[in-house]
Each structure stands twice: as C-alpha cells, then as structure tokens.
Amino acid sequence: MSVLEYKRALLYRKAQGNVHRESYFKKTHALTGSVVNKGDFLTLEETDGIIDALKKSKVDLDQSIQLDNYQQIISFIKAQLGGLFFYLLIDEEWKYCGAYITNFIHLEDYSFDTLKSDEIRVIPQDLSFQILVDFDDNELTLEYTSYK
User: Fold this and answer.
1) Average pLDDT over residues 19-28
2) Exposed, middle or buried: residue 10 (CB in 10 Å: 0-12, 13-18, 19+)?
3) In 3D, which of 105, 75, 70, 108 has the Cα closest to residue 90?
4) What are the residue boundaries of the structural domains of the chain, listed by start?
5) Which label site among 58, 74, 97, 120 has the fewest CB atoms less than 10 Å from its CB?
6) Of all helices (H) and strands (E), which one includes residue 24?
C-alpha cells in the first residue's frame, strides 16, 4: 500500500471511528470496570504499528485453550500479564478507534451478546505475546500466541 493509499484509508477509518466510538467506549468500560479515558487510546497510526510489529515477529508458541468460564480466562490473562499495562483491542472497532492502554480487565460483567461482541485481544506493551478471547456460538475460546 502506498503512502497516499494509507493516508486515504486512515482518513476513512478516523471518520468511521466517530460512528463506532460510543459502542467501543461501552465495551471498553465493561471490560475495565472504570471510566474510559480518551487519553488512554492510541492513535490509529500507533495501533497499526503494534499490529505490524506483531506480524513481523516470529511466533514461538501458538495454542488454543478451551476454558469453561470467565474466571478461568481472567485468571489466565492476569497470570500472563502480572499487573503490567497492556493494549486492549475489541472486535473490529479497534481499527477505527485505536487500542486502549490499561492494566485491568474484568470479564465477569462483560456480556458478549448484549454488547454484540465476539473478540477481545490483550497485548502487553513489550509485545511478547497476544491473548485472543473469541466468543462464538456461546462458546469461549482463548488463543495464546507468544513471540520471540
């Protein structure tokens, strides 16, 4: 993609961010249990940089883990993160609104159905791994990918 094409696509995504912002903020609030601070969102360019860096990284381990409930997922995420700050990307809306930086996730009150959500990504700031929580047909799957 040329620089001009990227800038054009970026302008479109920013305009779409206005359409998706309220829904994305609701989802972010539901996951963090706190007031959503606009200043904690990365720009689209910064978010693209994270995704590009992960795409260029070598995968060390990639596994799917079937877990029974939200608490097991939260326990797994917290064990991996150890309280560090991380990037939160929800559904496709992150492409229009940017990643959110936080150090807390609270999945127990998150309703995938009510919020029309099906995917949550958690990426630590050091980009050493990615956790993808996928909700499909009332089944939760956790995918863990670590990078070298």
Assistant:
1) 95
2) middle
3) 105
4) 3-147
5) 58
6) helix 3-32
